[in-house]
Design goal:
elongated, binds MU-OXO-diiron, Ferritin, 5 helices, single chain, mainly alpha
């Protein structure tokens, strides 16, 4: 049983997760338009991951007998303009999501809502991994360059990583749907 406040906060997070999906879909299309196919696949896989995050929260609210309230999803910002800016935007966004998840945990603890606290642990761990991955990509872009052969190599790496993410995602989607 969730309090009304906890349910409202989780519904707000569902909106953030859908916005994240929307943001990464926008970055995927921008990358594709720039002929960065691997980067486009990577952001499309990120889009899929964020949809899974949103659906995990939808499932949790339903399992707890709480109402799911879907609000309007804000439009993504204007194109980032360059691959480095795409990943800087991604890191900035994920840091904001981490802050939001931490605030949710703080609230669950303040209510002694152990179920929600435990449920949110998965998201806390996921944020650590996501920030680390994007930091790593930014580091490689700065080291090897965001143009020419360095960019081609990183775009290929991102394409390979996207395939792995898509496989993991297919398994996660099957579990979420169950
Ligand atoms: Fe669902 Fe990347 O936070």
């Amino acid at each position: 049983m969730l309090t009304a406040t906890m349910a409202t906060k989780l519904n707000e997070q569902i909106n953030r997760e859908f916005f994240s999906a929307y943001l990464y879909l926008a970055l995927s299309t921008e990358a594709e338009e720039s002929n960065l196919r691997g980067t486009a696949s990577w952001f499309l896989a990120k889009h899929g991951e964020e949809m899974v995050h949103a659906m995990k929260m939808v499932r949790y609210l339903l399992d707890q007998g709480a109402s799911v309230k879907l609000g309007a999803i804000a439009a993504p910002p204007a194109p980032a303009g360059a691959i480095l800016a795409m990943f800087e935007r991604t890191l900035e966004h994920e840091r904001a999501v981490t802050t939001a998840i931490n605030e949710l945990v703080d609230h669950a603890l303040s209510e002694k809502d152990h179920a929600t606290n435990i449920f949110l642990h998965w998201f806390v761990t996921e944020q650590i991994e996501e920030e680390a991955t994007v930091n790593d990509i930014l580091g490689r872009l700065r080291l090897f360059g965001d143009k020419g052969e360095g960019l081609l190599m990183i775009d290929n790496e991102l394409g390979a990583a996207a395939k792995v993410m898509a496989q993991t995602l297919a398994q996660a989607s099957a579990v979420t749907a169950a």
